Amino acid sequence: xxxxxxxxxxxxAGICQTAWTQSPTYGVGRTPxxxxxxxxxxxxxxxxxxxxxxxxxxxxxxxxxxxxxxxGCHGAMGSGTHAPTLISRKNVQTASxxxxxxxxxxxxxxxxxxxxxxxxxxxxxxIWDYIxxxxxxxxxxxxSPNEVxxxxxxxxxxxxxxxxxxxxxxxxxxxxKMPNRDGFALPPAWKHGESRLQGYP
Length: 201
Prior knowledge:
Blueprint: H1 3-21, H2 34-40, E1 55-56, H3 58-67, H4 70-74, H5 117-120, H6 124-134, H7 145-158, E2 168-169
Antiparallel strand pairs: 1-2
Helix pairs in contact: 3-7, 6-7
């Protein structure tokens, strides 16, 4: 086969391959049902409008923290060495640098005293969302809304964001003034066709 013919065959095959990979469907899968979409659509926004009914207090959360095994990974005081720190320790410094001390072992990205979720997150609803979707490890999604509210209240109290007797629910949780609420800036609104990052193609 001469070069022109080989080039033609290769070009046609490439065009066909490109057209196939850009086809609207691949002949597999199906459209998810509305119920299936609802089961996955569990994200909680800063406004908390998606929060379910329920309530919890820090005292209830302290009991659950032990009962649900949270201390096994995060430590009895919320700063274990096997998982991110949940409760920022006060005035923890190294002798040499004067900086916040990190555990001997810390998962990447390392979450320690300086950037715990209770101190770093600008919205209390983020803590509720994370516990609800990701905890306990290996049993994700098994906590009831009341349990999630209670654990969230416990962590907020231990990080000095609320008082111990405050009740967290769908109305009160979004109103919690987080320590870093003013330290975050939302990205500018994105419009179709614009670069998502300055100077990015």
